[in-house]
Amino acid sequence: MRVAVTGAGGRLGSALVKQLGEASFVREVLAWDLPQHDLDDPASAGRLLTRFRPDVVIHTAAWTAVDDCAQQPDIAMRRNGAAVGEMAEACVSAGAALVMISTNEVFDGLRTDGVPYRPTDRPNPLNAYGKSKLEGERLARAAYWAAGPDFGAAAMQPDIARDSTIPALAIVRTAWLFGIPGSDFPQKILAAARQARAAGTPLKLVSDEIGCPTYATDLATAITQLVRESNVPHGHGLGGIHHIVNAGKASRAEWARELLRLAGLDLQTEDVPMSTWPRPSTPPAWGVLDPTPLPGGPLRTWHDALADYLRLLPTGA
Ligand SMILES: NC(=O)c1ccc[n+]([C@@H]2O[C@H](COP(=O)([O-])OP(=O)(O)OC[C@H]3O[C@@H](n4cnc5c(N)ncnc54)[C@H](OP(=O)(O)O)[C@@H]3O)[C@@H](O)[C@H]2O)c1
What we know:
By secondary structure, the protein is of the alpha/beta class. It folds into two domains: 2-178 and 214-243, 3-Layer(aba) Sandwich (Rossmann fold), CATH 3.40.50.720; 185-210 and 248-287 and 300-310, Alpha-Beta Complex (UDP-galactose 4-epimerase, domain 1), CATH 3.90.25. 40% of the residues lie in helices and 15% in strands. It contains ten helices and twelve strands. It has helices at residues 11-22, 44-52, 66-71, 73-94, 128-147, 158-163, 185-199, 216-230, 252-263, 302-310, and strands at residues 2-6, 28-32, 56-59, 97-103, 169-174, 177-178, 203-206, 210-211, 214-215, 240-243, 250-251, 269-272. It has a six-stranded parallel β-sheet with strand order 2-1-3-4-5-10, with helices on both faces. Helix 1 links the parallel strand 1 and strand 2 (28-32). Helix 1 (11-22) crosses helix 8. The longest helix has 22 residues, at 73-94. 47% of the residues are buried. The structure holds NADP nicotinamide-adenine-dinucleotide phosphate. NADP nicotinamide-adenine-dinucleotide phosphate binds at residues 7, 9-13, 33-34, 37-40, 60-64, 79, 101, 103, 133, 174-177. NADP nicotinamide-adenine-dinucleotide phosphate (NAP) binds next to helix 1 and strand 4.
């Protein structure tokens, strides 16, 4: 297979390029990023698909700065919404499958029953980033749905197709990604912990935002298996909405405390509500995803993944 990865220099994109490059079922990996692939250019996806003809595109590129998205929602819609629709249409025209990466922020996080969100739960994003990613999901489905029998969509009921399976389109929702090249929550907490320790003040940690910390390396492994299975006769197939996160859940405070423990950083912490730091973007308070079954089985716990990641980081402790 020839597999293209957009956002190839990003956290998830770079992990995918590495793992696909080592996978025996992949003949060639096409690593696309700016300026070759530009979410601001409506013709960009079509040009790349026509020229390189991959079998599968894994679309990780996105405007992920959630607070900037809140301040410039039109740009968020362009990059995370319209550009995904253009990518899906280009893939349909070229006969390629698409894996689109989406987010737990398509949910409002207002549920209080402690039940993780399933792919069949109704999205209702609170913020501009979540709205733009949901629009990307909608436009991707619309492009494959419009393609009809070539992609199997016409064989299904519209309501099933809306929430479930179009064989050549996978929507992968994930959450709270961490991993190389960093600038992620673990690295920010380690820097803040060093500052707090030098100042002799407690480290304030948000305790009322709950999610699923997910290691980009593990997510890349799961997506690689998903793509491999799609190429195997009678395999699992690619299509549908997949919730892929490391096992377990945590508040930001629990995640940070586990990180400090692993890094051997002993300092005082103080739990605070997220309202302590008003932000342009409101995250879902309960952003927990129910992992969908995967060809390679469930991902390991986020604790184990974090311990692995930490071995790669200079802790400076
Ligand atoms: N990070 C999270 O916690 C999280 C959670 C849930 C879902 N997701 C989703 O997972 C995917 C991967 O996230 P990530 O954390 O790996 O993101 P990331 O590290 O921010 O990488 C995003 C990639 O998109 C590229 N990009 C940004 N603006 C672009 C533009 N205008 N045109 C073309 N490419 C552009 C970036 O290129 P440059 O580096 O050159 O700007 C980068 O390669 C995204 O779709 C995101 O929405 C992320």
